[in-house]
Amino acid sequence: MASTRNNFSLLPLVALMSILVNGVLSLDYKQALTNSLLYYEAQRSGQLPAQQRVTWRGDSGLKDGQDAGVDLVGGYYDAGDNVKFGLPMAFTVTLLAWSVVEFGSQLEAQNELQNALAAIKWGTDYFIKAHPQPNLLYAGVGDGDSDHQCWQRPEDMTTPRTVYKIDESSPGSDLAGETSAALAAASIAFQHADPNYSSLLVTHAKQLFDFAKSHPGKYSDSIPSVGQFYSSTGFQDELLWAAAWLQRATGDKIYQDFLESFQGNGGTRSMFSWDDKFVGAQILVAKQILEGKFPSSGNLGANKDEAEQFLCNCIQKGSSNIYKTSGGLLWFNEWNNLQYTISASLAITVYADYLSTMGKSLTCSSSLVNPPELIAFARSQVDYILGANPKSASYMVGYGSNFPQKVHHRGASIVSIKKDPAPVGCKDGFDWFHKDQPNPNVLVGAIVGGPDKNDNYNDDRSDFQQAEAATANSAGLVGVLARIS
């Protein structure tokens, strides 16, 4: 049974199981929350701390940035590879921070607040290093092409640790804006726990927002090599997202003025993702309108309208509903669909509480929807992910008794360096990749790409569309699980 494999001793077996009570699936949201935050420890790059709980991992990337004369040790590997991509990493941290900002008391009640803050800080410490000057931001470390030619544990990396940056001559408003949003959101999360750190985060967030505004451009135009991995479709959403977070973090009117005068709020979006933050920005603006702090007219009012239309479409009560599988899952894309399902679920959950606080409901084209109904819909998506689906399968690794065994992940699929310290070469690792056996290390808490639009899932390490997990997948789930636990 999977629970006997490496490093599962740190999680009680009983807590990992989904239990049938009177024929109804009973889900342990608290355990799923714990798992979600454990996953980020498995994705850490750099020198691991003494309190590291995922013990099959070791130190890695300890010379990152050295070739460029800068310390870029730390941060997160984005998915099943050994590359640190700045854009999805920043979005991950923004969503983790949003989860703490909105649901910090619930996280504390579940004894997970400190773990959530630690997950955020592992990212923000790296961003501070990556931003040594106001108009300079290091965009990532590692060469995606060569990395994808190898299958190695991060502890054994022999691939180039190429350093990429944006600056005044090679701008990236999307990357600078998203990193600004992450730091601004994190500054709110740390306001009480560490006021000095919170202040430092705001300083960097302001500088990065100014950089993004004054030097417009897409980072993937400045750094073409990231195009095949995380190409950006635009930067207007990141500017709005950053401004909305800075307004919330500082209360400075300049950010409200920016939001009010910005031409183009994106309209009603079809998804909320690492490449498209319009929904998040729209929801933050809508909060201020609901509370009477922003006017409900003009550009600001349009943001609220578009956010609500997206939410109505998600819950199947809009004018252009998002596809829902016969098993009940919101389905957006054949490639790593669950990331979109989860980010939408976070948006729904957050907005439900905004409405509830103000004693309001969501007006959709087909009906009026009250906050408990919104929470119930978000819960239905979580339940599907955790096992209430046609396959009775959990798409969270390490949760329940039937979860993906062959996650597309280098470190998890090769024997731990703690068990066998002999280096695994670039091509040697493919011997592990091609083994038709469960991964030797359980990537607890990881959310895989998930099933197709027919609710089918292929537990195959080579199927990276379905079987690869990524940090952006799980980030929103932390907040939703905290809320419903």
UniProtKB/TrEMBL annotation:
Chain ranges of the Glycoside hydrolase family domain: 29-481
Cleavable signal peptide: 1-26
GO terms (BP aspect): cellulose catabolic process
Keyword tRNA processing listed: no
E.C. code: 3.2.1.4
Active site: 408
Keywords in alphabetical order: Carbohydrate metabolism, Cellulose degradation, Glycosidase, Hydrolase, Polysaccharide degradation, Signal
Reaction(s) the record says it catalyses: Endohydrolysis of (1->4)-beta-D-glucosidic linkages in cellulose, lichenin and cereal beta-D-glucans
InterPro entries the UniProt entry points to: 6-hairpin_glycosidase_sf, 6hp_glycosidase-like_sf, Glyco_hydro_9, Glyco_hydro_9_His_AS
GO molecular function, one term: cellulase activity
Record-stated family: Belongs to the glycosyl hydrolase 9 (cellulase E) family.
Alphabetized PANTHER family for the sequence: ENDO-1,4-BETA-GLUCANASE (PTHR22298)
The protein's name: Endoglucanase
